[in-house]
Automatic annotation (TrEMBL):
It comes from Carnegiea gigantea. Transmembrane segments: none annotated. The keyword Cell wall biogenesis/degradation applies. The active site is at 314. This is Polygalacturonase.
Length: 483
């Protein structure tokens, strides 16, 4: 009996100590992020809880209950007490995530809190929600590197009728003047593009398949502008009203394991567009869309593309360049280890007449074509209508290499290789090696088209390409210096 009484006293003392101290033990691991200018925590306590200066109360555990199962941390980032970045969960700033409530203010507040923090942090969009936000510019510079982790679904208003009149219809999410930003996650950026694609001003969407005139602005889904050291990985982007992702005026861009998906009929939905940007790597990504899979615009250099799969797209394009008599400078572009299938075009360079500048040091290597209409294209007469005038100036193309490009094409009337260079500014230093392109059905379409194209065939090609001119032209024409 004596031993039983002592045991009972020990158990009661243990329970009393636990009820008085467990709140403090747990409280030490919680990190609240307060809204700037307010005194209450951005993370709301459970309804009915007391003052947040008091630790939460807990009932003592039942000794007969089994030991609790410790769940893994849903966030891959340690708490500040563990030396990791702070987590700025948008729901802690008021985001609802029901797909209809406007969560724009919560996203902006979470971004501002992370951007102004000395240690940076992670703006988290949790998996348990569909978050609708309107057109927003997430500006820098921030005090430290920052991560936007999207694990849920983020989307704009559903179509032009729901778009706020005060918002720009040319862009949705803009990341501006940032250095060292990462966009990642396991979630989806949903563009809600269908109602934009169906506007009667879009190609063949008017009455009886016509295209009506008038304003036809549609927002690019994501734009990085004047930002450096940007990393994008793991995210899924789909159904953009126009371009899915644009980089303009950036330096140091790394993209990997990105998924982009839109229907084949969706107009102007380029997957990734790069212009006025240097030092870009695009790796191991899958893009299925209704326009260029990847497009390289003017002012781009040192772009490396590897392991990309393009499906039902317009292929990988350099251009269009030189529109409205503008200067375009593009150099050192490598596309290697790509698969292009069920697409209108494979690898293409397209320029307008009347432009100036140059395209140089372009390498297309180890590319597989599957059921592609036009596999290899240089088009220096690019025009969207029949009203384009003949011009004497053009962007100068030099040093374009095609190596180990193999696969099938589905056009039984036109050859899969088409080099249409400017009348006055010939293409020079074109190299063909290990090119084998066969019809997916029917007979081989030989006689590739060449016009004013100078280059060399290092190995026999299929179809044979005997139309390249030897050596160099006597004159290059009017080439504007400055690239």
């Amino acid at each position: 009996m004596k031993h039983s009484s002592i045991f009972t006293l020990v158990v009661l003392a243990s329970i009393l100590w636990w009820s008085q101290n467990v709140g403090k033990l747990v409280e030490g691991r919680v990190h609240y992020h307060k809204k700037k200018g307010g005194s209450s925590p951005a993370y709301s306590p459970a309804p009915g809880s007391g003052d947040d200066d008091q630790p939460p109360t807990f009932s003592p555990p039942d000794p007969r209950s089994p030991a609790p199962v410790v769940q893994p941390d849903p966030y891959p980032y340690p708490s500040p007490a563990q030396g990791g970045p702070c987590i700025y969960d948008v729901t802690a700033f008021g985001a609802v995530g029901d797909g209809s409530n406007d969560d724009t203010a919560a996203f902006r507040d979470a971004w501002k809190a992370a951007c102004t923090a000395d240690s940076g942090g992670v703006v988290l969009v949790p998996s348990r929600g569909r978050f609708m936000i309107t057109s927003t510019i997430f500006s820098g510079p921030c005090k430290s590197e920052l991560v936007l982790q999207i694990d849920g679904i983020v989307m704009p208003p559903d179509g032009p009728d729901c778009w706020p009149k005060s918002d720009s219809k040319k862009q949705w999410l803009v990341f501006y003047r940032l250095d060292g930003m990462t966009l990642n996650g396991t979630g989806t950026i949903e563009g809600n593009g269908q109602k934009w694609w169906d506007l009667p001003c879009k190609p063949h969407r008017g009455p009886h398949g016509t295209t009506l005139s008038g304003p036809c602005d549609s927002p690019a889904l994501i734009r990085f502008f004047m930002s450096n050291n940007v990393r994008v990985s793991g995210i899924r982007i789909q159904n953009s009203p126009q371009f899915h992702m644009k980089f303009d005026g950036c330096e140091g861009v790394h993209i990997e394991k990105l998924q982009i998906n839109s229907p084949q009929y969706s107009p102007n939905t380029d997957g990734i567009h790069v212009e006025n940007t240097k030092g870009v790597g695009i790796y191991n990504s899958m893009i299925a869309n209704g326009d260029d899979c990847i497009s390289i615009g003017p002012g781009s250099s040192d772009v490396d593309i590897q392991g990309v799969v393009c499906d039902h797209s317009h292929g990988i394009s350099i251009g269009s360049l030189g529109v409205h008599n503008s200067q375009a400078c593009v150099s050192n572009i490598t596309v290697r280890g790509a698969m292009i299938k069920n697409s209108d075009n494979g690898v293409r360079i397209k320029t307008w007449q009347g432009g100036s500048g140059s395209v140089s040091d372009i390498f297309f290597e180890d590319i597989q074509m599957e059921n592609t209409t036009y596999c290899i294209i240089i088009d220096q007469y690019y025009c969207l209508s029949k009203a384009c005038r003949n011009e004497t100036s053009a962007v100068y193309l030099s040093g374009v290499s095609y190596k180990n490009i193999k696969g099938t094409y589905n056009n039984l009337r036109s050859p899969p290789i088409h080099f249409a260079c400017s009348d006055t500014v010939p293409c020079t230093n074109i190299t063909m090696s290990e090119v084998e392109l066969l019809p997916s059905q029917g007979v081989l379409v030989d006689n590739p088209f060449c016009w004013n194209a100078y280059g060399v065939q290092e190995t026999l090609t299929i179809p044979p390409i005997d139309c390249l001119l030897d050596g160099m032209p006597q004159t290059i024409g009017e080439i504007v210096a400055g690239c």
